[in-house]
UniProtKB/TrEMBL annotation:
<comment type="similarity">
    <text>Belongs to the peptidase C40 family.</text>
</comment>
<keyword id="KW-0645">Protease</keyword>
<keyword id="KW-0732">Signal</keyword>
<keyword id="KW-0564">Palmitate</keyword>
<dbReference type="GO" id="GO:0006508">
    <property type="term" value="P:proteolysis"/>
</dbReference>
<dbReference type="InterPro" id="IPR038765">
    <property type="entry name" value="Papain-like_cys_pep_sf"/>
</dbReference>
<keyword id="KW-0472">Membrane</keyword>
<dbReference type="Pfam" id="PF00877">
    <property type="entry name" value="NLPC_P60"/>
</dbReference>
<dbReference type="InterPro" id="IPR052062">
    <property type="entry name" value="Murein_DD/LD_carboxypeptidase"/>
</dbReference>
<keyword id="KW-0378">Hydrolase</keyword>
<feature type="compositionally biased region" description="Polar residues">
    <location>
        <begin position="24"/>
        <end position="34"/>
    </location>
</feature>
<feature type="compositionally biased region" description="Polar residues">
    <location>
        <begin position="1"/>
        <end position="11"/>
    </location>
</feature>
<dbReference type="InterPro" id="IPR000064">
    <property type="entry name" value="NLP_P60_dom"/>
</dbReference>
<feature type="domain" description="NlpC/P60">
    <location>
        <begin position="37"/>
        <end position="158"/>
    </location>
</feature>
<feature type="region of interest" description="Disordered">
    <location>
        <begin position="1"/>
        <end position="34"/>
    </location>
</feature>
<dbReference type="GO" id="GO:0016020">
    <property type="term" value="C:membrane"/>
</dbReference>
<feature type="compositionally biased region" description="Basic and acidic residues">
    <location>
        <begin position="12"/>
        <end position="23"/>
    </location>
</feature>
Length: 160
C-alpha cells in the first residue's frame, strides 16, 4: 500500500478536526534561530499553496494528495530532505521524540484504524498541517480529542 495505508475510502473516514479559520496561526512557532524562523515561514507558505487541495488516497498532486505524499513533498520543498513515500515507511525513519518536546517540522503519526495510519507536520502551539480525508490539506489541533487519542509516534529529522 501507499499513502496513508488506508483500505477505506475517504468518504468513510471522518476527520474530527476542530480547526477553524479563527484558530489559524499567522506564523509558525519558531525555535529561535533565524534559520528556524525562515524555514517556519517557508513551511507555512508551502501550506498556503496546498491549502484546500482535496484528499486522494495514493494521490500526489494538486488534483488530490494523501497525507504521506504531502509530508514527503513538503520536506523536499522546504527542508531539501527526502522522506519515504508511505506513512509506514516514514514512521521508521528519523529520531523518536516525545510529543511534549515536539517542535515545528517534526512529523506526528496517528493510528486511525486497525490497519490505518496518518501523518502530519507539527507546526507548534499544538497544531499540525496534513492532508485530511474530509477537509483536504488543512491545519488541525493535536489536542483535539480525536487526534490526541490516536497519537502513536513523533519523529524528528536532521533538517537544513
Amino acid at each position: 500500500m501507499t499513502g496513508c495505508e488506508s483500505p477505506t475510502s475517504a468518504e468513510n473516514r471522518p476527520d474530527h478536526s476542530s480547526y477553524h479559520e479563527t484558530n489559524r496561526p499567522t506564523t509558525l512557532a519558531p525555535s529561535g534561530s533565524d534559520l528556524d524562523t525562515s524555514k517556519s515561514l517557508a513551511l507555512f507558505a508551502y501550506f498556503e499553496e496546498w491549502e484546500g487541495t482535496p484528499y486522494r488516497y495514493g494521490g500526489a498532486s494538486k488534483r488530490g494528495i494523501d497525507c504521506s505524499a504531502f509530508t514527503q513533498q513538503a520536506f523536499l520543498a522546504v527542508y531539501e530532505h527526502s522522506l519515504p513515500r508511505t506513512t509506514r515507511q516514514q514512521i521508521k525513519t528519523g529520531d523518536k521524540i516525545s510529543l511534549a518536546t515536539a517542535d515545528h517540522g517534526d512529523l506526528i503519526f496517528f493510528k486511525t484504524g486497525s490497519t490505518r495510519y496518518h501523518v502530519g507536520i507539527y507546526i507548534g502551539e499544538k497544531q499540525f498541517m496534513h492532508a485530511s480525508s474530509s477537509k483536504g490539506v488543512t491545519i488541525s489541533r493535536v489536542d483535539n480529542p480525536y487526534w490526541s487519542a490516536r497519537v502513536i509516534d513523533v519523529r524528528r529529522y536532521p533538517l537544513q
